[in-house]
Specification:
alpha/beta, Aspartate Aminotransferase, domain 2, four-stranded mixed sheet, 15 helices, globular, binds pyridoxal-5'-phosphate, pyridoxal phosphate
Amino acid sequence: MTSREEYLQAALGAAVQRYEERNKRSRELHLAALESMPGGNTRTLLHNPPFPTFMKRGEGYKLFDEDGHEYVDLVAEMTAGLFGHGHPTLLRVLTETAGTVGLSLGATHAAESRLAALLCQRFGLERLRFTNSGTEANLHALAAARKHTGRRTVVAFSGGYHGSVLSFGAPLGKDGGEVSFGPGENTVDRDSFVVLRYNDADAVRRVFREREGEIAAVLVEGMQGSGGFIPGRYEFLLAIQEECEKAKSVFILDEVMTSRLAPGGLQSTIPGLRPTLTTLGKYIGGGLPFGAFGGSEPVMAVYDPRLPGTLAHSGTFQNNTLMLHVGHAALSQVYTPEAAVAHSARGEAFRARLRDVAGGTRIAFTGSGSFACLHVSEAWGRRGGGDGEGGSVTCKEDGGPEDEEVKELFWFYMLERGFWVQRRGNIALILDIPQEVLDQFVDAVADFIRDHERVLKL
Ligand SMILES: Cc1ncc(COP(=O)(O)O)c(C=O)c1O
């Protein structure tokens, strides 16, 4: 009888071998990419040993790779690909805008305030500014908080991810970076951050006592995204809000991922929650690069160019016409408030089925609405697999290290079954994905559990 470790090594070795045989063109393209980019990579998350799968094109909810395989896209561009590939309404607006308006006007134009007004109304913001990415939205929200309060310290949470230079230890998994729960090496201005455990309301109250008059802002996700779709608890988010109000600090809720979960964002589902600033990104540009931050008028006034001594916030493509026109169509015509409610409900039902098939194993599925994340370990299976969102796991440290080899095996397995999933386990649903395709994925998860029962038993 082989040990668990031997079983996993053998299964993974065989999966890698099959992958290499099935993806010869991807391997060639990877070797060529090594000549011009470090590791052949320009986006660390997409670095997948032995070499990444090179995609050629997308169509609706499907992707097609360079070696001729077809996949159901459950990565959905890390939630930004909500509309799938080539949504007809968005395509029409995209080509019309490019043809009749032009790409960048180098001037103020009406499409800016049209989308800004729509977003302010939908997400309950008084004022808003655009950026090119979610990372920039958070950076500028932090700058606003610091300017407004005249303080520097920012409280963030382990497992939190707020952009490429605002990462607080979201584990990337084997060969994809180290698991560390402090600010990463490339976290901007890292010494000014205090990093606490996610969902620890007591730690929040304590830090405000210990650092009285020092805290400019608390930066937090209402549900950790890259950190594994771990929902924030009501008491925790409310404690942040209360402490920020008392200390006149700025409460920044990062809704870059979560704003799609309900018509007014995740915050609209939490009674009494009203962050000072909200940051947005991902799907809102209809698939084009997008970011925005906004909220309290007095705080956002630090960017009012009519006032003396305010902050500059420039960026060549911040008011690019394609994003502004397509983004407006995406929110007003496609992802309407009703569509958001319906999509989240479908996601809830999908995740409930995933949890059913995974019950009693080392696998747990966390998430909310149209997001789900696979976690694998004994602790996750015991504590996170059962009742409620995330069971009793409330932060990364609670769940402990995961069985990264099993997660890898899952990744290779799903690729062979024609499902494009993230190696770290996050899944996001494209808007028009057919129900029977979701059912097929649930069946594939059940098959994976049956085929590898040996390493998944509790
Ligand atoms: C919660 C959260 N904030 C910010 C970002 C950064 O957004 P972008 O990749 O557009 O810079 C991300 C990206 O994954 C995110 O999930």
